[in-house]
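Reviewers of the previous submission asked for a worked example of the structure-prediction workflow described in the proposal, so we include one complete record here. The input consisted solely of the amino acid sequence. No template or homolog information was supplied to the procedure at any stage.
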Amino acid sequence: MADEQDPTIQPEVATDTEQAVPDVASKIKSSKKKKGKSKVTKGIIFINSTYNNTIVSLTDMEGNVIGWASAGLAGFKGPKKSTPYAAQIITKIAVAKAREFGLSEVSVFVKGVGTGRESAVRALNANGLNITFIKDITPMPHNGCRRKKPRRV
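From that input alone, the workflow returned the following structure tokens.
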């Protein structure tokens, strides 16, 4: 009975599990690979400018997002998010992210009717990116919604 409650038996079991845990941890660490930043020279920039915000997304030619910036990310709040100045600042932030990947030549797609769309495109050019073309992809209704039925009096 004294042998069953002897504390010397438990450390042997604990040492076996302690030895097994580092082996599993070392296998997990060795199997993970760090992703390196790939060099992207050509890319696409999407500028989404609404009445309330401006969002700039950077992608490679396949459409994989490299980086993005929005007015909220830059610290603007409330009605200041939709200003041309905010669009200029977030474009500067987005271009700084693009420089890490070596992006130099971009195609620009602009969507929306906000005030920041033109200043965002100008800021791209001012920050040293070579713009190949600019296209407006704002969705336009072909015939709009169905009209309200006429009122019977």
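The radius of gyration is 28 Å. We consider this example representative of the routine output the project will generate in years two and three.
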